[in-house]
């Protein structure tokens, strides 16, 4: 999608208890944004939109203070903690009403914001999706690095296309965000959905920094939840694997049966007892695994059919900054592009 005049950019930043880093991050992001404004790459009414994902600290107070200091800073506040994916979806959905370009980035700026101008430049070349990709994971712990590698490997085996070493630092044009919003699932796995949407894309590489302050909001249980969501929302391969495993076990049971019959014909029945016990335990275990996996899918169907809201926004200081002005967007060369 080629933009004929300056696009309006919104930088969406999910924040969960980010009090220690928010001020510094806001200044860095604003510095980069204002440079883009002065070089006429984006419109002067471009914004930074912080999405407070139900923080318990003073994150929301800081966001509102920033908004009083400079109208470039805006915010959404969730009624409680819904998770990073929901914060991203909320920010993108609200920003998309007024923006031509949306960039999402973590509040701790571990992902190098200095590649934002290059992302915008790529979008001017007609690229709709610009992925920020870390070129090394040296700043991550051994466990995080290895588990991430394992996750990408497994997802690839399941046939899910992911951009390795890309998290949620990316630029999307408005039409990609519009397409993304048509995916109405309650637990969207954004990293998996975006490559599936298509559109011209590019990758920009950067070195990931350690967190400057505060701590990771992804303890082990949240990481496992995230990985499971990715696997279960994109593939029924695990259930296939169980089917193949079941067939294998049935083949094994058949061979076992023949062997037991031969033993029986020899009158040596006591020997067969251990084999039968082995099969009983083996099959019992297999059935438990199978039932638990089926249960996972049934559980997901259950949550999806309820159609609960993905989030409830308590306060929105972003949209009201536009109320007096006419929304101006979609200065496209291709008028056929639909919203
Ligand atoms: N985050 C969020 N809700 C959550 C957890 C995290 O909005 O429930 C935000 C967090 O504030 C940060 C981003 O998601 O902006 C990534 O979190 P973090 O930096 O802790 O993840 P890590 O870099 O350790 O993977
Ligand atoms: Mg981080």
Automatic annotation (TrEMBL):
Record key words, sorted: Glycosyltransferase, Membrane, Transferase, Transmembrane, Transmembrane helix
Broad class of where this protein is predominantly found: membrane
Recorded topology in the membrane: Multi-pass membrane protein
Transmembrane segments: 242-262, 274-298
Pfam family, one: Glycos_transf_2
The Glycosyltransferase 2-like domain, residue ranges: 10-149
InterPro entries for this protein: Glyco_trans_2-like, Glycosyltransferase_2, Nucleotide-diphossugar_trans
UniProt-listed Enzyme Commission number(s): 2.4.-.-
Compartments (UniProt record): Membrane
Keyword Iron-sulfur on entry: no
SUPFAM superfamilies per the UniProt record, alphabetical: Nucleotide-diphospho-sugar transferases (SSF53448)
One MF term in the entry's GO annotations: glycosyltransferase activity
The name this protein goes by in its record: Glycosyltransferase family 2 protein
Species in which this protein is naturally found: Levilactobacillus tongjiangensis
Higher taxonomy: Bacteria, Bacillati, Bacillota, Bacilli, Lactobacillales
């Amino acid at each position: 999608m080629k933009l004929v005049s300056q696009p309006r950019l919104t930088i969406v930043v999910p924040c969960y208890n980010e009090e220690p880093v928010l001020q510094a991050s806001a200044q860095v992001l604003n510095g980069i944004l204002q440079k883009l404004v002065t070089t006429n790459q984006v419109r002067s009414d471009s914004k930074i939109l912080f999405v407070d994902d139900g923080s318990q600290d003073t994150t929301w107070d800081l966001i509102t203070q920033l908004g009083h200091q400079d109208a470039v800073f805006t915010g959404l506040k969730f009624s409680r903690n819904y998770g990073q994916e929901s914060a991203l979806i909320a920010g993108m959905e609200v920003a998309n009403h007024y923006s031509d370009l949306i960039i999402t980035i973590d509040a701790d700026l571990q992902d190098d914001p200095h590649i934002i101008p290059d992302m915008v430049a790529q979008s001017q070349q007609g690229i709709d999706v610009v992925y920020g990709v870390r070129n090394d994971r040296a700043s991550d712990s051994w466990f995080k690095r290895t588990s991430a590698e394992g996750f990408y490997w497994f997802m690839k085996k399941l046939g899910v296309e992911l951009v390795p070493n890309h998290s949620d630092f990316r630029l999307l044009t408005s039409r990609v965000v519009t397409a993304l919003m048509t995916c109405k699932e309650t637990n969207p796995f954004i990293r998996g959905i975006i490559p599936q949407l298509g559109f011209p894309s590019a990758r920009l590489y950067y070195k990931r920094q350690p967190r400057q302050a505060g701590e990771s909001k992804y303890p082990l249980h949240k990481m496992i939840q995230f990985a499971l969501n990715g696997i279960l929302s994109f593939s029924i391969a695990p259930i296939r694997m169980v089917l193949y495993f079941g067939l294998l076990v049935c083949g094994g049971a058949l061979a076992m049966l023949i062997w037991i019959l031969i033993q029986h014909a020899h009158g040596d029945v006591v020997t067969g007892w251990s084999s039968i016990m082995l099969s009983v335990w083996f099959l019992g275990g297999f059935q438990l695994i199978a039932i638990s996996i089926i249960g996972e899918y049934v559980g997901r169907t259950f949550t999806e059919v309820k159609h609960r809201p993905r989030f409830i926004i308590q306060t929105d200081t972003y949209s009201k900054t536009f109320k007096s002005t006419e929304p101006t967007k979609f200065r496209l060369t291709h008028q056929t592009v639909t919203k």
